[in-house]
Predict the 3D structure of the following.
Amino acid sequence: MNNKTWVVGSIIFSLLIMALITRNGDIAWMMLPFLAYLGAGILQTPPLEKLQFITGRTLEQGRSNGNAFVDVKLSVQNQALETIYLFIHEVVQAEMKITEGHLGQWVELRSGEAAELKYTFTAARGNFSWSSIRIVVGDPLGLIETEMFLPASSMIQIRPQIRKFKAIRFRPHSTLHSPGSIPARQGGSGTDFFGVREFHAGDSLRWLDWRLTARHPRKFFTKEFEQEEIAEIGLILDARQSTELRVGEESLFESSLGATASLAEMFLHQGHRVSLFVFGETMLQVFPGYGKVQLHRIMGCLSKAKGGTENGAAAHLDFIPIRMFPSHALIFIISPLVSADRQLFLRLRAYGYQAVLISPDPIDFAYPALAQNTTSRLAIRAARLERRLLLNGISHMQIPVIDWQISQPLLPLVRNALTRPRGQRE
Amino acid sequence: MIPRKTFFVVCLVASMLCLTIGYGFVGGWIGAVIAIISGLAWLLARKYPLSWLPHISLFASVGLAVAGQLTEAPPLLMIGGSGFALAAWDLIFLDADLGANSSGEQTRRYENKHLQSLALALGSGWLVAFIGGLLHLQIPFVVMMLFVALVIFGLERIWGTIKRRSTR
């Protein structure tokens, strides 16, 4: 029963009471159009027992990269023998932006006939899933309506936009003993010449150093090559509310997230083992892994990440469970930082991790939105000084710091940070 | 112009005219002015269909019609005024429901069916009311009370049916 039915019913009842009180027959006759209206609605309402529908929801794709346009098609087919009047409604989800089509439609469906509702939406990223279609069945006058949820499940994952980075040649302090692309400072099977040693039983005869052997009778020497191994990479994305900043449609967190996705793609493409930890209201983690499957896991995790509200446990970066990363891993921390976050870097160094800080600059990001007066200029200057002090402090711990202004390309900065001597500021 | 919008304008003007002329017949100029002002309220109600304005406008129009009946205004005009107000009220909600998304064949059929049902319901209601208005019956008090009890019982049954049908 909806508002229309209530209003019509109460008018009929009021007119009846008024007619009785005033003993005026004309007022009673005034009820008749209202009664006829209500009666027409009741008589044309389909019996619920006989209703049968076939429903479906079709998505153009099951997975998509950021800012893609996704076409959705809902279909409802009337399997009852009677003509049905119904409203097909799609429930819009947060972060969805409808670019084309409508989310609701009133239709008349004859027996066996099907109706379709099409719309297109876009979203920066996220997991979108539906389990049912909402329909409202009623009479043509819309007086008696029944809400039904018909099963039609589907889902789509919109992943963050990836900027493909070219491979970076870098040398972490330690490597994993699996064949890869990083020179491991150890002799073994590789391509680059590493040294010569005395021949041991079992060595391949192909690598005998004949010149040295000729100079030393009764001794054999074999050439060694530098082993090439993979690196252990950890990514920590800061999703705390205190570090999130929004200027219009732009979000600092989304930039950090995009950078994390691009780094993960680059390192996995190079064959390294990568893990991820998203530190925020809901802590998300992807344990170390390789290859495309790991990239799918990381992208799935990043598409769920939210830079939303904060709880007490997520107040300080120091609460990050850094032991989830394998020892001696190269850890990238992607965070704009707040002044209390210095402690984490001390812990990382103490545990023997090699760390790199990528810090999107919140002051530069917010600068266009700030008032251009003396007070504001002073405040910006003070904030810049505070940030510089914080970054310098971290830099003194032999941790490369990338002070990233998000309008700049990130790749050259990361390349410089990984190839320059330790502790040198970007 | 879309049929439902045309019908809304027609029903609104007809309702205002019925009430204004009805009050004019008995010299109730205040009532006539209020009837005209209520027309403006209907236009506002059409702009904000999701608010309570359409319901308030309908109650106001029906209230005016009842007041007209009590001041000896022509009953047929008063019944017509309240009936057209009911149609205008219904068409406001139809327009809000269909909105800009009424181009499809199935939606057009739904709209036509709605208009047909509305016309049929109001037409039959008016016909019976007009015929009834012409008859002057002297009903004994006991019969009258039985009739009222019957109407209340009928309303209760209708209410029960509506509740059952709208619950699943």
Q: What stands out?
A: Chain B has a mean pLDDT of 85. Helices of chain B lie at 3-25, 29-47, 53-70, 75-98, 105-134, 141-165.
